[in-house]
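Listing 4. Sequential folding, example run.
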Amino acid sequence: MMDPDEIDAALFAVGALSRSETEILKARQRHDSAFAAKAREWEGALAPLAIYAGDVVPPPDLFDKIEARIDAREKLDSMSRTLRANEGQWIALGPGVRIKELHRNVTLKRWTILVDAEPGAIFPEHEHTQDEEIFVISGDLAFGDVELGPGDFHFSPKGSVHAAHRTRAGCRCIIIQAM
């Protein structure tokens, strides 16, 4: 089975995504250099094919087939699946902070991520464009006057502003938030 990031990069390179999916992947490329490199690699590999394409009139039902394929992909995204501990790719988010995508819901523009922060790491203040949920697996996480430890859960509603997040001993947590 092909890596989902490879599929996304290839679909992005050929322009086979919806406008909202394209915008999400453009934004992802700004903070995920590994994904940006994959997209460039696909663009470079596919560019020479344009020379041979010539003028081609697409069949009248092509757009319907594309929409059906996108719908099928969205259904696949919502189906049950398993991600093993050794699967997925860690992405550096900032000094001492990395994330691994566990699930992405393109329709709702939300994702579930596993966050791993080293001792002393700080994540800057930010505003929530959607509700955010945090579950601390291990370590400590603090922001403002809130201090979380293993097993603690925190909910922040859309529009709320979080002070900078800090961890003294390091932290591993699951966050469900806007992409």
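-- end of first protein; second protein begins --
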Amino acid sequence: MKTPVTLLLAATLAVFALSTSAQHAAPAPAAPAKPDIAAGDTRYNSVCAACHGAAGNSGTPANPKLSQQHPEYIVKQLTEFKSGKRPSPIMQGFASQLTDQDMKNIAAYLGSQKSKAGFAKDKELVALGEKIYRGGIQNRQMPACAGCHSPNGAGIPAQYPRLSGQHADYTAGQLVAFRDGARKNSPQMSQIASKLNDREIRAVADYIAGLR
């Protein structure tokens, strides 16, 4: 005859065995799908290329160059366009057509494309732009742009976007939007842009256009 202790031990072992069996039988969670550059190429050309150009090299000053941009940054911006966190009726319409995987694929494709070099246009302003970009504005406690976006504008992957060669018109427009509160998806940039006047914004944007 089994004692109560023996019965309790047997029951405990049985529960443990069932639990272990269930754990082994449970399917492993699916790994996230890797970005598909070929699929990104196809989707980009069907949705984005009309405005942002072949391979992300926009020829329209108001539309940003996207080639060679860090994929993480592109995914973040597309996600925030889609949600409305970064307001843009045009971009929200396009982004709403994209799945999360589409965004990753497009971002991977653009990150793999070579960006065409830009150039500064205003010789009188570019020296001021270089001074601000490399050294900031000390008496306004504004840090140097190069501290986050690197001296050559390459940025820091997964943290700060590439700026090198970007159209001056687009960069200036975004700095004004940050400064004036129209773009709110980067509190850090809003704070920095608030320290710049219109002339300084044009100067920085023109200098950035010539970085390479």
